[in-house]
Amino acid sequence: MSRGPGSALAERRQKGAGAPGAACRPGCSGQHRVRFADALGLELAQVKVFNAGDDPSVPLHVLSRLAINSDLCCSSQDLEFTLQCLVPDFPPPMEAADFTERLGRQLVCLERVTCSDLGVSGTVRVRNVAFEKQVAVRYTFSDWRSAHEAVARWRGPAGAEGTEDVFAFGFPVPPFLLELGSRVHFALRYRVAGAEYWDNNDGRDYSLTCRDHALHMPRGECEESWIHFI
């Protein structure tokens, strides 16, 4: 009994479907296509040319740390070095004798601030006037010619019976601010119960200035720090 062309074609299709590697995942058509970048009108390679005479742009704070690491390797004495960093131009607000009085008067007060290469961070104390509240820090690198804002995050309750709340804030600092004399200004805004309150250091704004900060590190601690760094 002979088979027609249709039967032979169906048999080949069945064999092909059962061949190893023919199985397809759900949603797969079983057909694979390869497309090259030049077929899409794109370049196959990108070439970047560097001039040998161009000096790399390395931030000053990075160079300072490279110099410190070099001293760690070569020196046999205790190290004394100077770093350029942002330093607050005001004492810790929370340690002031009138902190509680100011908080009761303006409902929002800066507690403390910390500066590092990553930026500026700190905490804010507010009076718990209502459940819904928002705290933000407004800051400038250009003496208020332009300004930015960062929303603070609720950290937890404070004070007796939750009468106060603590918020944490942070914002990045661009590398050019880590040059001597550069300044950052900021103030804190508190919105609650349809009203807005500010802590701007009694109208002077809070400011940070980049200064030289001298550090002294005994040789033994340097070696331990270097090993930990590696």
Task: Name some characteristics of this structure.
carbohydrate metabolism; phosphoprotein; four-stranded antiparallel beta sheet; 2 domains; extended; 230 residues; single chain; disordered C terminus; CBM21_dom; 35% strand
* CATH H-tier superfamily of the largest domain: Carbohydrate binding type-21 domain
CATH class of the largest domain, anyone?
Answer: Mainly Beta
Helix/strand order, N-terminal first: HHEHEEEEEEEEEH
* SS content category: alpha+beta
Radius of gyration, in Å, reads 32 Å
Principal-axes geometry comes out as extended
Q: Give me the CATH architecture of the largest domain, please.
A: Sandwich
pLDDT averaged over residues: 76
Largest sheet descriptor: 6 strands, antiparallel
Q: What's the total number of strands? A: 10
Strand residue content: 35-45%
Uncertain regions: pLDDT < 50 for 5+ in a row?
Answer: 4-10, 15-29, 222-230
How do you describe this structure in short?
The protein is α+β, with helices and mostly antiparallel strands and 230 residues long.
What can you tell me about this protein's structure?
There is one protein chain. With 230 residues, this protein is an alpha+beta fold. The protein folds into two domains: 60-80 and 218-229, no CATH class; 82-216, Carbohydrate binding type-21 domain (Immunoglobulin-like). Helices cover 21% and strands 35% of the residues. Strands 1, 4, 5, 8, 9 and 10 form a six-stranded antiparallel beta sheet that branches. The protein has a four-stranded antiparallel beta sheet with strand order 2-3-7-6. The longest helix is centred in the first third of the chain and has 15 residues, at 60-74. The chain is extended. GO terms for molecular function: glycogen binding; phosphoprotein phosphatase activity; protein phosphatase 1 binding. Residues 1-27 are annotated as: Disordered. One of its GO terms (biological process) is glycogen metabolic process. Residues 16-27 have a biased composition (Low complexity). This is Protein phosphatase 1 regulatory subunit 3D.
